[in-house]
Amino acid sequence: MEKITYEDLYAFRFLSDLKASPDGKYLLFTETRAAEEGPYYRSGLWLVEPETQKVRPLTSGVDEKGAFWLDEDTVVFRSARDQEKGEQKSRWYKISIHGGEAATFLELEGQIRDLRKLGDTTYLVTEEVWARENPVQEEVRIFDELPFWFNGRGIINSKRSVLSIYDAADGSKTFLTEAPFQVQGTASSGNRIAWAGYEQGDVEGHASRLFVYDMARREQREVELPKEMEIGNLFFITNDRLFFTGQTYEWPGRSPRFYEYHLEKGSLRELPYMDGAPSSTVGTDASYGGGDKLAAKDGALYFLHTGWSHAELWRLDPDDRLTKLCDRPGQITSFVVGEHGVDMIAFRNMRLAEVWRLNPETGEEIQLTHRNDAYFAEHHLVEPEYFTFRNRVGIELEGYVLRPLNEETGRKYPGVLEMHGGPKVAFGAVFHHEMQCLAAQGYYVFYTNPRGSDGRGEDFANLTGKLGTIDFEDFMDFTDEVIRRYPALDAKRIGICGGSYGGFMCNWMIGHTDRFAAAASQRSISNYLTKALCTDIGFYHNMAQLGTDPWHDFDTVWNTSPLKEAPQAVTPTLFIQSDEDYRCWMSDAIQMYNALQQNGTPTRMVLFHGENHELSRSGKPKNRIRRLAEIGDWFRQYLQGENAG
Questions:
Q1: Percent of the chain having pLDDT more than 70?
Q2: Which of 6, 315, 468, 516 is the most exposed place for a label (fewest CB within 10 A)?
């Protein structure tokens, strides 16, 4: 048996985007692997026959994604296989599930974000256009609105998503929206289409408008909403019943409310309150790709929900009865509902995601694919030990601990406290490559979900005006509890590690305590003056997170900034940052690094060129491995090496 290493990223098979054939006989999924020979990933399409559990490749596995079923025998997928450099075209190919080569199916001009089948020859197209001039010119970048850039999308100043119906029979395109209207989300069922969005002005608004369109009648209407809200999760439960969520921004941890609009009756009603979003936010660095997270059958809506530290699957019946169908430890990233149950791509038993079939009546799950079984048969996996404890004010919190691989009695071991991002997400019993590497290198790895995390309702998640206070207390109490429970953990050799909000906590902790021996702060926040005024979501999300802005309450903004206490920091700190991270702009990492250098505190900054906020999850494979190596080398130096203790 071998230890898990950084380079094992190349051995992982990432499954995503599960789709069922119209007759329910086959399941289609995308399998993605990191390519060793270049800075990219290879993705291919695979078929599963659930009744026989046979799994076979459908395509060559080079560049196939965004697949959907054209009919019971044909799959359509998107690929750039024939695209020339700089070409502004999108191509889709079709392939028979019974064999043969893929053939060109559709070719569309422009920046197409999504293509969805409507009828025999019609498709719903979402594309990006420039409302005014293209701001990216040869030597100039033009900004005159907010946000002017967005993580993962680059510069978006004056860029809008617009919606159209494309008819492949005659090549015509009928636009349903036009710039400056910005489409946020779409849904379709039969001959009906729904979309939400807003009129984009100089500053992006968060008061959505909702429209429905009847293709047969060629009728468009706007749905009158009960209050200003941002709409998400549009989905047709039936042809007449449209589900959506409405979110307001009193504070970022607030849970969305569920609504149903009945098209024939023209009535809108609020559905039972779930105190959470219809999605799962359990984090991992070992997932790649997306997929459907809402489904409907017999008038019932199926959706995900974060329950404490794992993904739950729920059903909302037409009579508003809510039923929890699944709450096993793990994560679900995509699912479909059919006659034989719920098929899903899920993380189970601390392994990488596979396709599973759930019987919603009994809760029994059957594993349908085994794409990663060979890897786990050859590698040591460290299972987390789970417990609950109470913090200083009596609130019950969860704890997870991975022991050092091949732990020996009588020895003392260093440890690493891992802190998730968000903060409204959660860690759970899900395979995490970084944590497994650290455990394999001889560390106790431990993590919790402090106040501010998801899975416990909006009151638990509300950190507005409290950043660095109650969450800091929970991390400190948890560290004390782990030291108490695990006497082999050396309290003088504990490091801290986290990204995004977890990076904020690293920066905050080193200025407020000297108990930790090393820190790895990634895509971090150090100065809310720059965070709130430079990043893609700063002007609304971070302002709401602080509960104020620099002009109305400068002291709160500065007092919440880890940079204020940087002169007190003595903890050796590694900063990992990407220069195209527009969510946590690199200026914050640079400022904190600069301050520590002036302190004389040991520090190092690693800036990844061309990467963004998703470096640890979907960055170039070689950069993901380099990132893990930098963290490992830093902790080895200050927790195990000559500078330790």
A1: 99
A2: 6
Question: Would you kindly state where each structural domain of the chain is located, as residue ranges?
Answer: 14-340, 382-640
Beta pairing partners, 399: 387, 448
User: Rounded to the nearest 5°, which phi and psi values hold at 189?
Assistant: -160, 120
Report the C-alpha gap between 534 and 623 in whole angstroms.
25
Pairwise CA distance, residues 225 & 244, whole Å? 11
- pLDDT for the residue 645: 64
Q: How many Cβ atoms from other residues are within 10 Å of residue 503's Cβ?
A: 29
**Is 494 within 8 Å of 482 (Cβ atoms)?**
no
Q: How far apart are CA 645 and CA 637, in angstroms?
A: 10
Tokens 């020859």: give the residue: 121
Fold of 14-340: Neuraminidase (2.120.10)
Rounded-to-integer distance, Cα 397 and Cα 477, Å: 10
Number of Cβ within 10 Å of residue 278's Cβ equals 22
Q: What is the pTM of this model?
A: 0.97
How many angstroms separate the CA atoms of 55 and 51, rounded? 11
Closest by Cα among 311, 358, 355 to 330: 311
Q: How far apart are CA 360 and CA 261, in angstroms?
A: 27
Q: Quote the pLDDT of residue 177.
A: 97
Closest among 374, 336, 335 to 352, alpha carbons compared: 374
Q: 602-620: string of b/e by CB count within 10 Å (b at 16+)?
A: bbbbbebeebbbbbbebbb
Phi, psi of 88, deg, nearest 5 = -100, 65
Instruction: State whether residue 258 is helix, strand or coil.
Output: strand
Alpha helices in 312-420 (DSSP H): 373-378
Tokens 């380079």 -> residue: 7
Q: Are 14-340 and 382-640 in the same CATH fold?
A: no
If one counts every other C-beta atom within 10 angstroms of the C-beta of residue 366, the result is 13
Which helix or strand (DSSP H or E) is residue 436 part of? helix 433-440
Could you tell me the sign of the dihedral formed by the alpha carbons of 358, 360, 362, 363, in that order? Answer: positive
Q: What does pLDDT average to over the chain?
A: 95
Task: Determine the residue type at 325.
Answer: L
Q: Is the dihedral of CA 520, 523, 529, 530 positive or negative?
A: positive
Label each residue of 50-76 as H, E or C. Answer: CCCCEEEECCCCCECEEEEEEECCEEE
pLDDT averaged over 10-residue windows placed end to end, the chain, 645 residues: 97 98 97 89 96 94 94 95 76 95 93 94 95 86 93 94 95 94 95 93 89 95 94 96 93 94 96 96 97 97 98 97 96 96 97 97 96 98 98 98 97 98 97 98 98 97 97 98 98 98 98 98 97 94 93 97 98 98 98 97 98 97 98 98 73
Using H for helix, E for strand and C for coil, what is the string for 554-585?
Answer: HHHHHHCCHHHHHHHCCCCEEEEEECCCCCCC
Closest CA to 512 of 560, 548, 550, 458: 560
Q: Tell me, which fold does domain 382-640 have in CATH?
A: Rossmann fold (3.40.50)
8 Å CB contact between 67 and 45: yes
Q: In this predicted model, what pLDDT tens digit does every residue of 32-48 receive, in sequence order?
A: 999 988 779 999 999 99
Q: How far apart (Å, rounded) are the C-alpha atoms in residues 317 and 167?
A: 35
Q: How far is residue 186 from each of residues 106, 114, 218, measured CA to CA in Å? A: 21, 10, 17
Q: What are φ and ψ of residue 257, in 5° steps?
A: -100, 150
Which residue, among 120, 138, 142, has the nearest Cα to 130 in the 3D structure? Answer: 142
Q: For residues 173 and 385, what is the distance between their CA atoms, to the nearest angstrom?
A: 56
